[in-house]
Amino acid sequence: MDSFTTTARRSTEVAAAVAAHPGRFRVLTGERPTGALHLGHYFGTIRERVRLQRAGVETFLVLADYQVITDRDTTANVRDNVYGAVLDYLAAGIDPERTTIFTHSSIPALNQLLLPFLSLVTEAELHRNPTVKSEFEASGRALSGLLLTYPVHQAADILFCKGNLVPVGKDNLPHVEMTRVIARRFNERYGAIFPIPDALITATPEVPGLDGRKMSKSYGNAISLSMTADETVAAIRRTRTDQDRRITFDPERRPGVSALLTTAGLCLDEEPEEVADRIGDGGSSALKAVTATAVNEFLTPLRERRRELAADDELVRSVLARGNEHARAIADTTLAEVREAMGTVY
Predict the structure, then answer these.
(1) pTM assigned to the model
(2) Does an H or E element contain 198, and which?
(3) How far apart are CA 205 and CA 263, in angstroms?
(4) CATH 3.40.50.620 residue ranges for the chain
């Protein structure tokens, strides 16, 4: 039995345990605030976070502002991106009374865990991480120390709050495995401090961008949650399709058409083939009209809620202040336990 099969089986068992006893679990998840959140984020992660929160799972949501510079030279717009992400979270149903939303740079004790954690992994292990490899290749830049040690930073994010559940897609499983390795090695060397977290493999759809590639802020092919209805229509109209009037779902030969069908299907809760059959010989103009309407109708409640929230100038600041305070208190306690276990209290 290969490692993924074993992990997948364990994930199924964990999902059942979460459903039966949600209060036993603590989740850490989040993202880098490198741009506006988009439909890929919503269907890929935000919707699952809301589900876990409503089920009664204690959730920590990190906006990893320090990680913005893993593959870029600037933190320009990071503050706006953080504030925009918080508005998107709240509008989508994240409740700051039940989910701790915090920024990476605001939790010094969390980052102090990096030094002992780095001593527990080898350079070869870091270089073997497939996510680091793919992000390095995509960056087109020299491999920075920050990117190389990215999995250890994520381990610190998870373990500072003693998270024991990490919802991830299949591609991010190596990060969870690295965290499990670090937790085990620390516990073996210094004493049992950290839980060994489990991965909860989420069946998240890969939302294609408007050019057929994965929807990504860096590709400029995304439909942002914060777009207006008119901006959404304009972005969809610019999508390159083809001359064939018959609309069919064929991601390899018709990436633009298929991307729009997938997007419309997700928003309508239908299969893309069903959407294609309904459009038939309507051509790309009909496809774009159907997709724009589906997206705008789906996002209307979220966007209206977001506008209401944005009217309160102090809301985001207060949410982050409360979340940062809570996360700092937990991180300080964990770091004190680590220093005690390591014998570095003077």
Answers:
(1) 0.92
(2) strand 198-201
(3) 10
(4) 3-206+314-342
